[in-house]
Amino acid sequence: MINIGFGNCVAGARVVAVARADSSPLKRLVETAAAENRLVDATSGRKTRSIVITDSNHVLLSHQSPSAIRDKLVGRVEATTDDEGDE
Description:
Layout: E1 2-5, E2 8-10, E3 15-20, H1 24-35, E4 39-41, E5 50-54, E6 59-62, H2 66-74
Parallel strand pairs: 4-6
Antiparallel strand pairs: 1-2, 3-5, 5-6
């Protein structure tokens, strides 16, 4: 399990992609996922910095940077570490 912020976790084996949230195609992906009830907002009101896409086609929003989530996925950082102080 990978912590994506504020105690919210995702199964690392189910993650297909982690991307920055600032591109137009990803913003459209988020809108589509929200319309189809496949969106999980795990930002707790903070700015969305990364988008996690799973193999079940769910889209998760996180306040953590894509590099922080990537480091947890590849085992460079403890997977349960929460970078809530990360702005």
